[in-house]
Amino acid sequence: MVPGRSALSAPASVYFSLQANHCFVYCSFSKKLLNIIFFMLVKEILDAAVKPVFSFEFFPPKKDEEWETLFKTIAALSPLNPSYVSVTYGAGGSTRSRTHDLVTKIQRETGLTVVSHLTCICSDREETGSILQNYRDNGINNVLALRGDKPAGTATLAEAIKDFPHAIDLIRFIKTNYPDIGVGVAGFPEGHPETPNRLQEIDYLKEKIDAGADYIVTQLFFDNRDFFDFVERCTIAGITVPIIPGIMPITTRKGMIRMSELALGARVPAPLMKKVLSASDDAGVASVGIEWATMQVQELIDNHIKGVHFYTLNMADATLRIFNNLHQ
């Protein structure tokens, strides 16, 4: 029996009805309808989807008082029925303990399926195994395997590497020792900034899929042509797993600059930049960014993508406005 998946030990006949991540079970022994929450693998969610699914990314707050704000955001977004949510690590795993606490808390208190980011940087086999076992014991069956960013105060990336030089090494470790855990990986429609050879980059991605990764979530982008080209190049390379586009709306001018720093290689198309710079204030910038993101998401849906992953920055307003626009 896989930890975190539904099971009944009672000696009774049962009838199952599956809705979202809830299993409604009628037990003829007790004459009761039981509502059992279980947590699907993201692969299972995507395989079963008959229409595009939506998911949200959060990050663990650095200050204790910000946790309440985050859970208000989660509560505000929950009515949108996300198929899953993800939780990030800080650079070098700097928010590692907060990530683990948040992942467990979200899944336990909201019933949402949660994907935890897991990075290679500053991680060894023993520690990573302990993290994965703890997740499995708490019914958390999904991780996003990443190399991670160099932590502050480290001169070179090599200094931060322990047992996992690359994401593929982490994937192999997971699939060898915890084969029941689902694994996602990152994709870069505009190219990974540290891999200038775009052909080689796709080859590396194919190796991660062959090692056992189930799906790809992309870095944010603002031009859908970059995403469609990326998908086509993946298809040519023999990559057949779902590729989920990552969307983050611009809401302030400073935010636009910050996005370009965080998502190295992400470019802002000239028409979008012109509209942002023409806005009179941040409210105007937000309207421009949300309208642009809505246009992106609608075009992606029209082209039959499996889902869309929203980078929320722990705020609900922009995502709620995009969803409202889509349903008008």
Automatic annotation (TrEMBL):
It catalyses: (6S)-5-methyl-5,6,7,8-tetrahydrofolate + NAD(+) = (6R)-5,10-methylene-5,6,7,8-tetrahydrofolate + NADH + H(+). Pathway: One-carbon metabolism; tetrahydrofolate interconversion; Amino-acid biosynthesis; L-methionine biosynthesis via de novo pathway. Coiled coil: none annotated. GO terms for cellular component: cytosol. It holds the Pfam family MTHFR. InterPro entries: FAD-linked_oxidoreductase-like, Mehydrof_redctse-like, MTHF_reductase_bac. GO terms for biological process: methionine biosynthetic process; tetrahydrofolate interconversion. The keyword Protein transport does not apply. Its cofactor is FAD. Signal peptide: none annotated. It is an enzyme of class 1 (oxidoreductase). It comes from the Bacteria. Transmembrane segments: none annotated. Keywords: Amino-acid biosynthesis, FAD, Flavoprotein, Methionine biosynthesis, NAD, Oxidoreductase. One of its GO terms (molecular function) is methylenetetrahydrofolate reductase (NADH) activity. This is Methylenetetrahydrofolate reductase. It comes from Chlorobium ferrooxidans DSM 13031.
